[in-house]
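User: Assemble these into one structure.

Assistant: Restating your components, then the assembled model:
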Amino acid sequence: MYLDNSATTQVSEEVFEEMKPYFTEEFGNPSTLYKYGRESKKALNQARQRVADAINAKPEEIIFTSGGSESDNLAIKGIAFKLAKKGKHIITTEIEHPAVTETLHFLESLDFKVTYLPVYENGIIKIEDLKEAITDETILITVMHANNEIGTVQPIEEIGKIAKEHGIKFHTDAVQSFGKIEVDVEKLNVDLLSLSSHKLNGPKGVGAIYIRKGTRLVPLIHGGGQERGIRAGTENVPGIVGFGKACELASQQLEEHYEKLSSIRDELIEKVLSTVPEAYVNGDREQRLPNLVNFRFKAIEGESLILLLDAKGYQASTGSACSSNKLEASPVLTALGLDPVDVHGSLRISLAPESDTFDIDEFVGIIAESVARLREMSPLWNQELDYDGVMCSKHGDDCRMC
Amino acid sequence: MDYSEKVMDHFANPRNCRKMEDANGVGTVGNPTCGDLMTIYIKVNDDEVIEDISFQTFGCGAAIATSSMITEIAVGKTVDEALKISRNDVADELDGLPPIKMHCSNLAADGLQAAIENYKENNQ
């Protein structure tokens, strides 16, 4: 049972069917004038309309990109470079996706100043902190709509209002929220918004950025003038067609899926917390996505848990350092103020509409059994162990965690 | 994570995973803040031979597998022989570890050395 839908999703049959002709029969370059080109152009326009409709935008405000990371990069660098003469201060949060955080680190190397708003134990920023952070130099606020690890939803509408009052551009990464909860660019008061296709049963390698009419930015990719000169390169027509279809389907089924997913999520939370000792939910219990829950279990390490669950046929993920390429514990979970040891014991479960076929009781039983097994092996469980002063032979003297 | 079959076997069916109440050498290495903590217990007899060895580990698949493996390698060896077991020996016996795990979770040889040092201190 695949329970890692925040990582990626399966392309749905309907989406795949819609894409197929654009690989073989309708292969034209949308920039050309003859029949093949016209057909591709038509498909591109239809997809653009579908994406626009899904977020209450106008089609000319949608620019197709290669995915969420590119959209984040384009929004942030594009605005920063455009407005650098006006000011060099950007506000964000401590729990953004790396596509945002790393882009900001890059800008810091170019003398931009970045304020990282804290999120507190519930994984949500405080509006007061935002107000205090704003200066005359602030040109951009970028705050994600919903978090990819813990699923908490930020007060985007309110942030947008404040940004507007101060004449500051406002970007949100809606990659995780899109297709799960309502994403309406008018209600959210955003100037820029990032979207990705593969999180909602569309293909990988395609996404979009919403750019409110009148918002100007510097392109990342210069070239043949495609996408109104904001994103050059021959369009990924089959991918864009699939993305458009996925948007249409997700919008049509939004409410139905919300009900279904949140009821599975709530049952899962209730059963895990009542079955497994010393189990907790990370992040706010109310302001969260319907399809995602992040647990933490005392005295165990997440990668081991993932391996045990995988052996039983359940695929999920963890924020443990041991599972990451950088060997660093999740900055998101760390930002919640958790004990660093507990950060390693996290388990993220992210559902898809088709997850209703799985047996929650059986799954919770397997979690309980796996956690118990790892605890039996763990020197941290039910033992008084003084490990202060035990050297970290893992990271050496420059270890940033210990 | 790309683990060998042997790593997965030792992870899924760890050998000698228990706390040893009558150990005469105990060593703990790693740091749970970083994600791995390992305690190795040894019982050394009058002939300086490791008669019994066990472990308890908090950590990833590689940390558990290397702990399990070293108990198999070290049992029956004299403490001096056991001190020569290197991190690479443990990884080799497991048909290799993913490169990223070679330096972080491959703690078992250090754990055994710490247990032997503790035994020697206890018996001075």
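The beta strands of chain A are 62-65, 89-93, 113-117, 138-142, 169-173, 192-196, 207-211, 279-281, 292-297, 346-350.
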